[in-house]
Amino acid sequence: MTMVADEARMLLTLEVGGRLCGVPVPRIRDVIRCERIARVPMAPAGVAGVLNLRGRIVTAVDLRERLGLPPADADAQRMSVVVEQQAELYSLLADSVGDVLTLPPETRTDVPTTLRGAWREHAVAVHRLDDQLLIELDTDRLLAFGACAVLEGRR
Amino acid sequence: MDDLLAEFLAETTEAVADLDTALVVLERQGGDAETLARIFRAVHSVKGAAGFLALHRLGAVAHAAENLLGLYRDGEAPVTPAGVTAVLAALDAIRGILNGLGETGVEPEGDDTALVAALDAAAAAGGDGARTALEPDIALPAMEVSAIELPEGPAEVAAATLVEEPAVAPAPATATAAATATASAATPAAPAASGAAPAATSIRVSLGVLDDLMTLASELVLVRNQLLQIARSETTSPFAAPLGRLSRITSDLQEGVMKTRMQPVSAAWGALPRIVRDLGAELGKRIDLAMSGGDTELDRQVLESIRDPLTHIVRNSCDHGLEAPEARRLAGKPEIGRINLSARQEGGRIVIEISDDGRGLDLARVRARALERGLATEAELAGMREEDVARFVFRAGFSTAEAITAVSGRGVGMDVVRSNIERIGGTVDLQTFTGQGTTITIRIPLTLAIVSALVVQSAGERFAIPQATVVELVGLKAGGIMVEWLDAAPVLRLRGQLLPLVALGPQLGLEAPREAGQAVEGFVAVLQGDSGRYGILVDSVFDTEEIVVKPVAPILRDLTAFSGNTILGDGSIIMILDPAGIARLSGIGAGSAEAQEERVADTARTQVLLFRAGGSATPIAVPLGVVARLESLPGASIETAGGRPTAQHRGQLMPLVPIGPWNAPGPQGSQPVLVFQDGARQLGLMVDEIIDVLEETLVLRPSDAVPGFLGVAIVAGRATDVLDCAYWLRLGDPGWFGKSQGTAPRLLLVEDSGFFRQIVVPALTAAGYEVTACADAAQALALREEGAMFDCVLSDIEMPGMDGFALLQEMRRDGPWSRIPVVALTGKAGPADVARGRVAGFAQYVAKFDRDHVLEALARAIGGGA
């Protein structure tokens, strides 16, 4: 994804394990209440399973697991942010979904090099909001599973 | 790009695609007038259209090629390999230009002078000044556009042309037709009477539209299934009747759409003759490629997926399989190597075979390579059968080629071929004979989109197993068929064979492995894997459902256990198990795991199949031994032929007989059937529900004579009707027992139980014996007095009056029967009993109801113990 740094960005805010995150709006196809997710045995870590979105099969990625956070309570009601990647739909499971924010380039800073682990892997930028910081997530990297992603994850 | 250019590109690409094959034929068989005319016409059309569209490069190349072809066509020059090579090069150039046109809309830059010179040289060498005959091409331009539109025989197969009738279009088959066909663009009101007619039966539809239609039809099937599921729970619904209609129409629609996507398999191998020719020239080998069954049709998606594997296999055959002419001569083979390519349909699958008469796989080298790559240990290799060793070539990272040549061995190997084919639910196998050649067999499903699948559950999760791979379903029950343990590995004894089992839950990491020795309940789905059968152990089994196979997301593609996923009628998503993948995961198929086991003597207890039929609540029993297998047929597979229900099943037509009143299941429903088999002939008895299989001592009590039933027995504490198989089989197929001829071996059955006689006689008759039955030894001996003669006697041991041993003694004492082999039929077949029987002089000693054993024993006894 090419970054256009000098333009305002529209991000959908979501909360994962108490952190405020954002996902670029243009990639989002749907936001739904997360209902039945069918487990996929032997799926890579981070894949929560598959769900039925109006007849389409959507692969669900658990953001908590992807970002190295403890799993959510079993009965917690979570939200599913459906994004598209190469004509395939994926659902990003978040604890809750907030507003859409239009953020000017001035608030945007690069990810501090001190950020470690999964966060460094999946964050592209940090936005300074008035009251808190918002971590912008890279959907492509969140959905990069497979051999190379595993190697990167071990860094 | 404007429409005219797009249309031109689509048609020309299609027409040119076929010419390679035609040219290779031309070169081999010389100037077949029809072929020549066809090639000439196609190139001529390209030239004309190029002139019309002001495509100068294309026009120049086509023109030069046309000149040469014109000489060939008119017999003014002999067809030479050099000439054909030049024309092939011209076709490549034309293709290159067409590709460029497709990408940019303008002719790509390029210099064709050398090519044109080569074509002209070939023409000059062959004929003298014949070029003038074809000069006035300026006059033709507009016509050619419509001339290409008429599909020319095999040209239809190349892309998505819809053909309702085999429009082989003989109309443009004469050399002049192209010139007489009227340009529809220019004068649409006056189409040529003869030339334009066939075009009306087919139209061009883009692949995208067809694929979308297929997706929509598939979705419709899903919605229909969902509706049917809801309707099933409501007994009286006003929607039932229209829903039935909707269901039928949906099925028809699905079938219709599927048909539009069917293409002959020759579309996938159309390029091969050219490839083989070029490879032969490159490698200095002479190769003959024979193709048969090219008109076998399959779904275009499947077709696309086998194109590359096929090409790869054929390249391999040319490069590694076939020897150089010198080596062939030394080996006493004809110098010309042969590759056979054949396709045929077998049930719901297409079988493609690629065989060559080359040197065969070097198994020693395969062994060495497998060892080197760490694919197997020396000990494992030593114990492996040759066919298993040969299969190593399908393993990842395995290539036997010593040197990587330009032809094959470019990093992709047979493992890629295998994974491509397995991805679409197919299998690939290989047979090789040193010095004689190699045969590779590919089995692929007809269509990928919709398959019938068995839904099973393990560890609380449901999975679908493609029905085509399920051989049978076995219910596990304490006291019935049970799982046994070889150390930590569960196995199942099934008809004398030891079946390796894979416990699905633990294999998929859903639950902890069961402790060895633990009793296991549930079901075993017996699957046919590449290297033998194995069973998947599951907790429960649901219906068979038609499912739409959807590929999993790219991030899940590495999961070997699954071939896709699907949405069930209730909206839930389940994963589709890949039997080949599971076998690989669990290590089955590394060797030949299916083990033979010593046959186990049965006890007096008999395996009895319990079912309900004809709407009656009373269970019905039949000895399992007389039933070949149990099937659950999808309702849609049951048709009515000649007023009788019939099912097309696994490529065979099977008459179906209902036991009592019968309600046809809906197309989505399923019909439990007891299948009886006699050689290739089979017949199904349709029942309402299969209840159980259990071991029971059947004691037949007489009851009111009801046709079709032998009487009543107590099974599992309940009064149960006992089925008279003979009655129903005769009802379904009067000829079932009617083939006893004078040549059939004559058999005397001495058996006091009427029930056993009723069971055994039909089974023996069906197996081709002429059976005479007696109720006791006295009756049998009376027959001897009457002068009756038999080839074999099958006698019960425990009988009132004279028992089996006494009868045998009496027969052996003297008289015409003293040499007749006697087989003991008994409820007790423990080792001690067998030993006693042998001592007494019985040829064989077998357990009742074990149809296969009885038949085997008889065959052996009559064949002189062979």
TrEMBL record, chain A:
Q: Which residues form the CheW-like domain?
A: 8-148
Pfam families per UniProt: CheW (PF01584)
Output the superkingdom of the source species.
Bacteria
Q: What is this protein called?
A: Chemotaxis protein CheW
- Species of origin: Falsiroseomonas frigidaquae
TrEMBL record, chain B:
**Record-annotated HPt domain positions:** 1-101
Annotated EC: 2.7.13.3
Spell out which residues are annotated as carrying 4-aspartylphosphate: D796
InterPro entries xrefs: Bact_Chemotaxis_CheA (IPR051315), CheA-like_dim (IPR004105), CheA-like_homodim_sf (IPR037006), CheW-like_dom_sf (IPR036061), CheW-lke_dom (IPR002545), CheY-like_superfamily (IPR011006), HATPase_C_sf (IPR036890), HATPase_dom (IPR003594)
**UniProt keyword terms in alphabetical order:** Kinase, Phosphoprotein, Transferase, Two-component regulatory system
Q: What are the Histidine kinase domain coordinates in residue numbering?
A: 208-448
**SUPFAM superfamilies according to UniProt:** ATPase domain of HSP90 chaperone/DNA topoisomerase II/histidine kinase (SSF55874), CheW-like (SSF50341), CheY-like (SSF52172), Histidine-containing phosphotransfer domain, HPT domain (SSF47226), Homodimeric domain of signal transducing histidine kinase (SSF47384)
Q: What is this protein called?
A: histidine kinase
Span of domain CheW-like = 450-588, 605-734
What is the reaction catalyzed?
A: ATP + protein L-histidine = ADP + protein N-phospho-L-histidine
Which residues, renumbered to this chain, carry the PTM Phosphohistidine? H44
Show where the Response regulatory domain sits. Answer: 746-863
Q: Which GO terms describe its molecular function?
A: kinase activity
Query: Where along the sequence do coiled-coil regions lie?
Result: none
- Record-linked PROSITE patterns: CHEW, HIS_KIN, HPT, RESPONSE_REGULATORY
Q: What organism does this protein naturally occur in?
A: Falsiroseomonas frigidaquae
